[in-house]
Amino acid sequence: MGSKKRTSADSSDDVFENNNNHTDSFLKKKNKKSKHDKTNDDTPSGAACSRVDMELQKKRKASDKERKRAAALDKPKPPPLPPATSDSNSDAAVSSLPELPLSYFRDLASPDSLIREAAATSLVKRLQEIQKQYESLPDKETIDGGLMLEAEKNDGLDNCAPHLRYALRRLIRGVSSSRECARQGFALGLTLPVSLISSINVESLLKLISDSLSVSSSMKGQDVKECLLGRLFAYGAIARSGRLVEEWKSDKDSQIVKEFTNALIGLAAKKRYLQEPGVHALLDFVDKLPVDAVVTHVMEAPELHKWFEQATEVGNPDALLLALKLHDKISVDHPVFGKLLPVPFSSGKFFSADHLSVIGDCLKESTFCQPRVHTLWFVIRDMLLPEAVVQTEDVSSAPSSSKKQKRNRKSSPVEEEATNNIRSFCETFMEGTLLSSSHDRKNLAFDILLLLLPKLPASFVQYFLSFKFVQCLMDILSTKDSWLHKVATHFLTELVDWVKDDDTKRVAVTMALQKHSEGKFDNITRTKTVKNLAADFETEEGCTLFLQNLMNLFVDEQHVPEEPSSMKWALEPSSLNSDQSQTTDDNSEIGSNEEKDSVGTTGNSDVLKSWVIESLPGILKHAKLSPEAKLRVQKQILKFLAVQGLFVASLGTEVTSFELQEKFKWPKTATPTALCKMCIEQLQLLLSNSQKIENPLPKESGLEQPEDPVSYFMKFLSTLQSIPSVSLFRSLNEADEKAVKELQETESKLSKEEKNCGLSSEASKYHALRHLVVQLLLQILLHPGEFSEAASELSVCCDKAFGSSSDLLNSDGEGEADGEEEPAVMDVLVDTLLSLLPHSSAPMRSSIEQVFKHFCQDVTNDGLLRMLRVIKKDLKPARHQEDQDSEDLDDDEDLLAIEEEEEEEENEEMGETGESDDPADDSETVTGVTHMAVDREVPEDSDASDDSEEEDDGMDDDAMFRMDTYLAQIFKEKRNQAGGETAQSQLVLFKLRVLSLLEIYLHENPGNPQVMTVYLNLAQALVNPSTAESSQQLLQRIWGIIQKKIFKAKELFKDESIELPTLASLLEKNLKLAAKPFKSKKSGVDPSKKKQSAAWNRHKMIANLAQNSTYWVLRIIDSRKFSETELEKIDSRKFSETELEKVLDVFRSVLVGYFDSKKSQIKVDFLEEVFRRKPWISHQLFGFILEKSVNPKVEYRRVEALEMISEALRSLVPISKETHEESKKIMKSHLVKLSLLIKELVANMPEKQARRAKVRKFCGRIFRMVSSLKLTKSLLKGLGEDGQTACETNLGDLFMNLKNTEG
Question: Where is the composition biased (Polar residues) (predicted)?
């Protein structure tokens, strides 16, 4: 069939459209060439003119597509056909046949499926009507001769009307068009006539399809493709019509089925893209055939034999798909299948390694259809995972099924076969073929697993997520440049989503990913996959299952054993109160060291085991469990960590304890010491977390208190120690062994005391001590030889507590037998806690803080000073402190002398810019009052041990006891080592930990008189330059504690022993510190911007400290005589003149420095805030401020002070009806000075606009007050003529309005 023939056919379409009444016009215009074909929808894309017309039609039809659709749906039914006549005249006969509208063919290509279906239905109805009338005509040959068109008479469709023959040819050509949805629509249009009109000869139609859509040598690639796809769609239409089945049923010896199979397979063999749709078309046909027809006709097709024979050699996945489907249809081992299917056929033989190697090429060549997954894999999925296996797995994994049922359930033959099939498929094909091949085949591996996921039982995850698969996944995810990265990311997302609601699947996936990545999946892939998976367990069953798998992974057990006696880590809680104290290890595995070494390489890596250890305490982090359930899981984790971290089995790897009714296992390879230490650290963390969430039940509830983790651990520890074949993972020296025994005895005593106390506060103290005892015991095992002394001291403290009925302070410190005074037990406890802080772990520090929190109300002055001494200790003494210990709190005269010396230097070297040569130690400004506040609290003989603190060589035992031993160690490090950076960083860390204790103390004792002691020492440490040099974090921490826990404390401390002169002196020091300028060096080398910024930030922090300290001290002064509720109404008349003058003198001195020197950097806003908070100060100093403002030595101070004067005047002279006379009297007494101030302001008006505005604002305020109090004349008199003239000149209307109110 050439293009010329198609063009003539297309020309005939115009004839049908333009002249529907007389068919003679077809013959007249048969050979006429059409300029533009308006109905070119069925023309193949091979002709160039057809392509141009097709594009024009697309553009035209796009605009009125909706109109066509509505017209097609609402099209009225065609008029009824006229009755057939027996007129022998051909013209009359032809005119009697109904017309065939060509719009049907256009609508068959519509993208709208409804339009296509309506067009196909209308077309077949019209063709049926035409064929019916045609068959009733007496002279059919005359009609045929007149309407032959371009069709040949010998096409085999002699019994069909000319219109039907034309429609069939038109439909066959239409399925080869790629325009819009022409293939689908014309295939549907071909299916319906073939199915409903019996006059159509199927054999002739097949020949017509082959001839009309044959491929010629002159066709190009796209034309060939169009013809081949057209034949495929045409064959599919015939297969779906059902006529072939009817033909076979009417004549079982007919060869039509075999011919159709040959034609379809022959077509599929031409091109790869035709194979899969061709197989689907054949399978649709086979589904309609009886089995015997398939066996005798389809299976005997020669083309099918040839196709199956070559399938394994060329790698034909479609042939394998067809073979599987045909075998499923006939259920017979037919020889035509050849090597594609095993004989006899079974899923086990099909997935055997030998057969998979035979069909391997067929399977891996299915990648050609990516990104779509080949249909073959849907069939293989159903073979790998039959419904029986999936349903059984769903029932066994249901939450309602008990653990005992899961252990006792035996696998069925179907499950065993499925397991073997999965294992063989994964090992042979997935790992052996796909993962070691190209990117496309790796992509196929991901697609296969994604296809299997919805039906995949959790027990099969381990086979698919194998070592090679996980390694491949990690390699891809770690390389973002690979095009497979998106594929792997999508796979990982789907995998995580698949396990979202199933804890069993989540456990299986998590364990597979970590096991095959050596515990580094998240690190290598730079994701949080495993972390998020492990954090999603919310039920006790899920936590227990995850815990079980982690423990099995640690001891190299691949599967959970079915026998209850073989492993009972977390299945049932065991009783630790059994009367059987005798344990035995007769059933333990016995093996030599050589055997252990020989299997050492088979165990899991240390990195993987470390991940297991780190994951155990985090299991409960996000779980929403009841306290009882959480305690049960905690105990199982605790047992495992204790067994693996603290003990080893001397014989074999298993030990059975009859008392605990459990068998404990260790890895076959000896656990490294580093992993044992990690177990102990996680054990500490677990116990610390349990302390934070413990909620004891009230006694009145009548319920028995659950056994807390500390008691459980100590009993479990004692039980394991009593087993002969179990020993600690490391040997301890005599001191450590003694300390461990003492701590165990101490914990037992504390536990008894706690039970006797019930739920009182004393019980909380004992409970906190018990946690600290256990943490210290584990710390001894972590760091042998370092904590035995501290353990002994802690045991002594606890023993002292047992001797009294209340708390530790009841030890009165009376002397021993030799007459020496025994230190207070609380001091010993504080020293012990301080000695534990430097090297303690985070859980141990938490326990130390809990103990200190419960006992901080009983801390003595000596213990508190020892803590503060640590904060002030400096390894690099500042200037003026090299010959003096910074911890000494006396020598006040020395410090003041230093300050005076600095002031002299500053007067000589400081210019108006406020710069000096050296940064002085700001701590000296607050140290002067420290002696007065602390001296009364320190015992008289306390200095005896402090005088020699700096001398390391001469430090005796008593001094070591009175001072923190860790500080002495730091001194020795600095002296013995070349560099002191390590010691300095350790000291900073130690200070931060001690600050946490001090913060707890301030929080728990806001009204304690010792708050002043803490404040003075922390303030001195804050202003010390070495603090900022050593650590900015330390500086910010100290400032935060002072600000939040002292200045902003809700309760103000009360200490009547602090005299007013002491407070006044402290006030003076803070005001001087607030006025101190920022100093920078005058050296030639410019400091770095970082250092300048740090110095400036420190200066602002110190100024802020001084200002807030001033407010705080003034608040304390007020509280000496008045309650908090009376502070708002305080007045200067409530003080005696002597007391008042001491405070006022301080402020006078500050104001003198402010007005007389540029060196003073005190902020006016700060003084204004002081006057606002304490009005009595501004009232007493108002006259003094006016005097200094009139004649300041520094001119610009006068304008700066105006806001301060306004604030003082606002509270001093309130304007109201009730206070009018009193305010007038006060105002009149200061009016002369105010007049002089205004006169000076207007006479020396500032040049800057901002300062001039301040002057105008201040004068306006004074004028309004004077006017309201009727004192205008007095003010004008005080101003005098010169002053009034200056006011008129500089103030203008503001002053004139005042003069107008005169009278």
Answer: 574-591
